[in-house]
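Please go through the protein record below and explain what the tokens say about the fold. Record follows.
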Amino acid sequence: MLPLDQRLATHRRVTTMTLMILGLLIFLGGHSVRIFAESWRQQQIANRGQSTWKLAYSVVALIGLAIAIYGYGQTRLDPINLWFPPMGLRHAVALLMLPAFIMLVAAYVPGNAIKAKLGHPMMLAVKIWAFAHLLVNGRLSDILFFAAFLVWAILAFKAAKQRSRQQPAAPQSTSLAATLATVAIGVVAYALFAFYLHPVIIGVPVFG
């Protein structure tokens, strides 16, 4: 039998990993309704109303995200390392995250050509973010966390493209000003997060 301290450490690892996975299942599961149960979603909206659905959806998403982040943070206190990525990959991640931020902003700025061209820039941003972070994290919890988001983003993007083919949206006008503003805001948001917020919130410097 393992010593008590090793048994307690194993129990703590299992508990925190379970919390993280549970949170991911709740958060990504809620965001997967449109992928796997669009007709059920539409029925719920028809029966309960758009506002009630959005409220319930938001509450479930926030609860799941909070549990996932808490569990993920706890796993980093006692990590299980599967491999040790070379430091040079951090430069690749820093480069990949710049277009990810621009695509994220493009999902919200009206009339920009990036969204008109890509269709679903938010999901593409999540893809890049998750893939980039898989490159530089060798802990088991990191791999599970970012792989879950990557798989979800791939499936969500595919489902969204299929819906767009079935129900084509009317062409939207774009402007150079909106596109330039999207890029500028994305670059500023990237710099702010990379140089200031990432070290404070995540505890890991992007550069240096």
